[in-house]
């Protein structure tokens, strides 16, 4: 279950909050019933892979359900999609609005492997319907719906943007991690964009050229290291406005499921993703161009707070920000000796350092 900032500030908890088993069983029982009603009873639930919940105090609860199903007793398929459990509705006008943003249960695509996620289905041109049909006025039983505007794309391009300067060891580690990610997933739909502030301890472009990453972009910039400016330079080179931009630090370890996790939690114009990083040793994304990009003036040659400032603008533009802890997504411990502009690394007063950011 997604956790609020209140949990982090007030409660001594670690990790994501656990959903009650009874709630999961109840929601999935309703979902499987409606799925089979609309598809001739051809699906059998084999395994619950993952269920995430986000509370919506105004309308009900939203769930991301990931299930392994048997289709017609022959093939195994994987279903991964968002559903809403609407708690109440009191006016005819509300019903129309809800049905506009809902769709009937769609079957998952057949797959030869249980690890294959079905492609998202395009919204129907006709009026969408809810999974259950209530009366025209108030009703007591929760209504199960599929939101049309929360269909994630399994093949959308993901760009990792990283600014660097004189961090040869960590640049090589990052490239190696990206090579391993490609080897384990065979996913061709991601690229790395490295903005190099005239590194003198290695030939970054050569390392990229000799690597096995599917796509890369090397950008060289002079002057002092400027994290915000470097990130913005990288973002500005991306031509496809419908792709996903993942801004990150150099010292991050990525789990094999990072690409799928990013895509599931990034829906254009609706959802942005900022996973919480676990820090080793002593301590533990700008997906919408209209939010204005990185603040390159206020955070010109310092960092610590620029990511929070960007997230504030993402939310002000109407996007929800998903905050989850991912297994094996962590920040390597490293010495800060010899780091870029160490004398300027002073966070502005009153600003927090984003868990994803910082060095």
From TrEMBL:
The principal location of this protein is Golgi
What family name appears in the similarity comment? Belongs to the chondroitin N-acetylgalactosaminyltransferase family.
Q: What is this protein called?
A: Hexosyltransferase
User: Native species of this protein?
Assistant: Oryzias melastigma (Marine medaka)
Q: Which GO terms describe its molecular function?
A: acetylgalactosaminyltransferase activity
Q: Which residues form the Galactosyltransferase C-terminal domain?
A: 291-334
Give me the ranges of the annotated region Disordered.
94-132
Gene3D superfamilies of this UniProt entry? Spore Coat Polysaccharide Biosynthesis Protein SpsA, Chain A (3.90.550.10)
Q: Where is the composition biased (Low complexity)?
A: 102-132
One cellular component GO annotation, for this chain's record? Golgi cisterna membrane
Catalytic class of the enzyme: transferase
Taxonomic lineage per UniProt?
A: Eukaryota, Metazoa, Chordata, Craniata, Vertebrata
The EC number(s) given in the record are: 2.4.1.-
Q: Write the record's keywords in alphabetical order, separated by commas.
A: Golgi apparatus, Membrane, Signal-anchor, Transferase, Transmembrane, Transmembrane helix
The cross-references to InterPro entries, in alphabetical order and at most eight, read:
Chond_GalNAc, CS_glycosyltransferase, Galactosyl_T_C, Nucleotide-diphossugar_trans
